[in-house]
Amino acid sequence: MLLSLDLSDPRPIHDQVAAAIRRAITQGTYVPGDRLPPARDLADALGINANTVLRALRELRDEGLLEFRRGRGVSVQRLPDPKSALESLARELVEEAGRYGYSKDDVIEILRGLP
Amino acid sequence: MTDRTRALAVAVPWGALVAAAILAVPAALSDRLPDPLATHWGSSGIDGTTSATGMTVFTLLFWLLPWAVLVGVMLFAQPRTRAGRSGWWASLVGWGLLTVSMTCSIVYANLDAPEARLAGSPGWDIALVLAVAFGGAALAGFLGRGAPDQPNPAPADLPTVRLHPGRRTVWVGRVVSLSMIISSVIGVAVVVVAGATMLVGLLPADALWIMPGLLLIAVAGAFTGTVRVRIGEHGLAIGFGPFGWPGKHIPLDRIESAWTEQRTPAQVGGWGWRGLPGNTTLMLRGGECLVVAETSGKRVAVSVDDAARGASLLNALAAERSHHVA
């Protein structure tokens, strides 16, 4: 599972982790029923507290993306619907544009200009 | 000098030397040896005798036939791997030493015996024969091992991902070995059942000695049944079992490149840590493996799901790091 966190993002870390996991599920090789790596592994790799990762996982469970099962860990319940997947990609695009000094409107202009 | 000419330049004189020793040792001492000689010992003493000529001919064949096979192997099927070269040198030297020391041992047992049935019997010198043969074989195998095996070259187009500045990107992969988990579960079940049976007295309590063994299987299975792989700014970390220990860590500055390969247990020689130092595979299941080339030339592979993303990230991180250093 490939996860990426923006170190300068002002959002709470658990929100960012949830977004990163959502994105990994969207674009990853995961299908419903697949198990996620243990929360502690994710936390170790990201260098953050395991409770933060657990909080993110609970958020995704509440969205219905993940399923918690006793003794079997956390598994994918369903894939994010295409619209929310697109939304999260669009959010990243706008963030990326911001880094180069472009506003959201500039991005919209660019999108309009695409064939 | 190529490997082959060097090998033959040693094998031919060595073959002649061993053959000369087989001929010379009994011949030089022939006036102190009985004929026939005692050549085979059973549990109740000497149970086989052979004429002096017969023994020499037999020993010569015992040496020259394998020697001819080894020379043939070097001529027509030269070993290309480190294990193959080591095996060839160990066989050549070990078998020669075994033959010579066996001859000496038989001659020593028969020395000054008026007739075969009064010969002594080999005792401690059997251990010496084996020690000389195996010691020589091990040394020759080590000296003849040659350069490390050159594994498959790294693919030209390495997978990579774009890293954004100011972001921390990590990859976490895991793999579960069903067979090891099952063996662990069975081990635990047997321990529980056997323990309960002993408690109620159905099984004699002196069968208790099997318990540590079973427990060991169960614990070993639990420790090696899962493997977790983490990739991040720290490099590559491979950890066993529920606690991620024992593990292996390769920092980023030792990583040259990474890619994926399809490998099976049959290819790498089984499950678990496989291969020779410098090119090892941690195999838990056949299929996609993450292969990492270290700057030292070593290769480490681990069977893990989603390995392609891991390899991409590792390449990107390693490239970024060398960029910063440069």
Automatic annotation (TrEMBL), chain A:
The record's listing under PROSITE patterns reads: HTH_GNTR (PS50949)
> Could you tell me which Pfam families the record lists for this protein?
GntR
Annotated keywords:
DNA-binding, Transcription, Transcription regulation
Instruction: Name one molecular function that GO assigns to this entry.
Output: DNA binding
For whether the record's keyword set contains DNA-binding, the answer is yes
The record ties this protein, via SMART domains, to: HTH_GNTR (SM00345)
Question: What InterPro entries does the record point to?
Answer: Tscrpt_reg_HTH_GntR (IPR000524), WH-like_DNA-bd_sf (IPR036388), WH_DNA-bd_sf (IPR036390)
- Per UniProt, residues of the HTH gntR-type domain are 11-79
- What's the protein here called? GntR family transcriptional regulator
Organism in which the protein naturally occurs: Sinosporangium siamense
Automatic annotation (TrEMBL), chain B:
For this protein, the parts annotated as crossing the membrane are 54-76, 88-111, 123-143, 175-201, 207-227
Q: Does the keyword Transmembrane helix apply?
A: yes
Keywords in alphabetical order: Membrane, Transmembrane, Transmembrane helix
Official protein name in the record: DUF1648 domain-containing protein
Record organism: Sinosporangium siamense
Its ancestry begins with: Bacteria, Bacillati, Actinomycetota, Actinomycetes, Streptosporangiales
